[in-house]
Predict the structure.
Amino acid sequence: MKLGIELGFKVFGVDLSHNAVESTKAWLAQEFATDKFDPKRIIAGPSAMDAFKDFKFNVILAASCLDSMYFSVAMEFVAKFRKLMAPEGIFIFDVISGDETGRSRDFVGDLVVDSEIEKGTIQSYYNQKKIEDLLQSQFKIVESVLLRVEDNMMDSYSGRHFIACVPV
């Protein structure tokens, strides 16, 4: 969001967490004068996106978020994104791959996280088919890349899918 504001874009933000929304507003208020961003454009939850129904977005970026919720909730977000997308727009997102230490690339599922930092949150793992199911024929994939990161110190690895798509 900060980069978009610095570049002069009209930036909007949506998060599932009301706490995340409030902390983002506070942080941006410290960084920018209120004439640079509108705090009312940062909201919580997919249903709150109805406030944007009169807007058409050229770019929607969902960075490291659609995999932090149940798949059914992510599908709600994507359906709302499609309604808000300009006909010539682009939707860019990334999701975690099942391709990580101890799992196969085709592992999919919604798991409750038990690590200390994210305890109790959801981690939804994706393969290419689940990505296509997420898009529900509302978007056409124009670029799909799976990046695998290896941690030599921990002898582990993980993967993320990076997707660019256009509305159908």
